Amino acid sequence: MSCEVVDLRCVRPLDTHTILASLAHTHRLVVASEDWPYGGVAAEVLAVATTEGFPLLDAPPRRLCARDVPVPYQVDLFNAFRPDAQRLAAAVLETVQF
After folding, report:
1. Residue 2 domain-assigned (yes or no)
2. DSSP letters for 38-93
3. pLDDT surpassing 90 at residue 36
4. What whole-number distance in Å separates Cα of residue 86 and Cα of residue 77?
5. 3-state SS class at 20
6. Is residue 5 part of a domain?
7. Measuring CA to CA, how many Å separate 67 from each of 38, 41, 73?
8. In 3-state terms, what secondary structure has residue 23?
């Protein structure tokens, strides 16, 4: 298994061409972001992928974001709040095995 990583360094304007080109190459999408799951950049990337690239998808796209809770101050809680490598690997495996 191999993955293609697209690092969107600029989100305004959103680089839809790169997103759709990657989707055409892999036919799967996992969006990882440290923002909340609703109303953030990850939601916009998924909106572009599903509205403009729906025929390219072989599996439902996944969104991996911070947990939908207020941002905690304590270090251990803050680390659990953000997406980590284990959650990302699980999301990728679930998408690939669909």
Report:
1. no
2. SSSHHHHHHHHHHHHSGGG-SS--EEE-S-SSPPP-SHHHHHHHS--HHHHHHHHH
3. no
4. 16
5. helix
6. no
7. 10, 15, 14
8. helix
pLDDT tens figures, 14-28: 999 999 999 999 999
54, amino acid identity: F
Mean pLDDT of 21-42: 91
CA angle 73, 67, 45 (to 5 degrees): 125
Handedness of CA 10, 35, 71, 93 (dihedral sign): negative
Rounded Cα gap, residues 2 and 22, in angstroms: 13
CB 37 within 8 A of CB 68: yes
Q: Once rounded to an integer, what is the mean pLDDT over residues 64-89? A: 92
User: Structure pTM?
Assistant: 0.83
Report how many domains make up the chain: 1
Give the CATH number, domain containing residue 83. 3.40.50.920
Render pLDDT for 59-70 as a digit per residue (tens, 0 to 9): 999 999 999 889
Q: Is 50 exposed, middle or buried (0-12, 13-18, 19+ CB in 10 A)?
A: middle
